[in-house]
Amino acid sequence: MFVHPFMVYALIAGTAVALAAGPAGYLLVLRGQVFTADAMSHVAFTGALAALAFGIDPRIGLAVAVLAAASVLGGLGNRGRADDVVIGGLFALVLGLGVLFLSLYSSGRSGSHGTAGVGVLFGSILGLDAQQTAITVIVVAAVLAGLALIGRPLLLATLDEAVAAARGVPVRVVGYSYLALVGLIVAQATQVVGALLVLGLLAAPGGAARRLTTRPGPAAALAAAAIAVASIWIGLTASYTLPTVPPSFSITAVAATCFALAALPRPRTRKSTSPETTGTGTTETVRRAPASVPSDDQATARTRAP
Amino acid sequence: MSAPWWDPIAMIDQMWALPFMVNAFRAGTLAAALAGTTGWFMVARRQAFAGHTLSVVGFPGAAGAALIGAPVWAGYLGFCTATALVLTGPRGRSGSSSTPRQGTSRGDGAAVGTVQAVSLACGFLFVALYAGLLGGTTSLLFGSFLGITTGQVTFLAGVSLLVLVALALLGRPLLFATVDPDVAAARGVPVRRLDMAFLLLLALAVAGAVQVTGALLVFTLLVLPAATAQRLTCRPAAAVALSVAIAVLVVWTALTVAFYTPYPFGFWLSTLAFTGYLLAVATSRAGHLRHIRLQLHRPRS
Prior knowledge:
A: ABC transporter involved in vitamin B12 uptake, BtuC
């Protein structure tokens, strides 16, 4: 497997993206912003196709589009969190623009141009070269450094925004920077698994980590990163042995299996996990006080908490 | 060759002389009515993320149907309803993200996001296995209004009838459960079963509408007219009617413009719908400001 340079590049780039996507995805899940990441992945698609349509390097289009999306989505919402209807409306528009660019790019041409959209949507991890891999590794290193820098204040702002603001954490700025970092990851992950499957690397490992550990700190980030990296390696190996299976599918399938296993209801371990879940649950209740209504088994804990 | 832009009657005559455009308008109208109604409930219940996940599932549905040689509508129906069941199923047990008010997108989106990624990945796998459909991937994802058959219109009419009747029957308790799930549950409304029933109806609506708009853009029709209507009025009945009206208007305009310009239908659909939404936001902001000004200038008693 390692004889082929494209497999080595795929493994290096995939591992790098997974290392960043795991922790970022965990925070995404914790902050309830998975839909925002979903919107960003669609923006990434449009950005890449716009760049292709205008004859620029698609990676530039990707980066510009996701950073613009991060600032718009951060600016629309209350304290860096947009309403899901607003997000939905925006990315419906963005997708429509994507269709336009796709038709501009593929009309009047044939062959590889016709399937360029498919490549952006579903990724081409086996087509990376040395330079692209190097860029991916550098960007991921920068993202990880950024995450390490804002990690603690971000976590505090996620778990209890009011306390974080009172402690002098610039909640808005932290939220913005986090969205920008997620945007950079989405841009890199788009090249690996494709715009439509980015969620598989962000949401599945993050969600699994949240269900596996009650510690919101480095333990969860490590768990998420481990699951994401394992998904890449197992997925790539599976695709190598079964060439008809596209790597994007096998990677996503492994990540989703991890999530499904972690989300299985376990017999009576709920007691031990309750402090963390009620913790976030209560902050969520406080934050959207008028809107949220507690449900069955969390209800008792929530009503008791304040 | 083409009718002049100042003569809409001639334009419509010209378009409707072509049978596929008549079918496109019929299917578009039905899809708009379906999406406008279910979309309003989706927006009110804050289930946009779940709705988006359900709508992309049309892609593996169609690709899977092509792979095993089943009719396409069966693929849409099968995959959409299965996803609706998956989305409601585990939440009943774990309760991690279950309240309708918080919505599937608000609670913990991880499950919804994972389901979405897996279903899209399955679609890609089916396409890769089938190996003859690669050019058709874009049309599955972004739809094509040119190839709608009379059979598809009939199927869509059947689905619309089923969903609209079911929504008419469930509408009142569903609205109650949406607005205040706790009080509704206390009054004996089966909130959880309604939640499941609504997602199933949403899945049916998506399975119908996806043939017109394609898997990625069905969400446009679900969310934007409903969000526009919600900006303009708070009364549920009026808002649903308005949402349907906006959806129909947008689809008709988009079909007409797409017929006369070289740019795709999906682009016009989402751009027009978003323009409507922006106008509604501006109108409601202006109305809100005027209201505040009136309040300020009112003489104190």
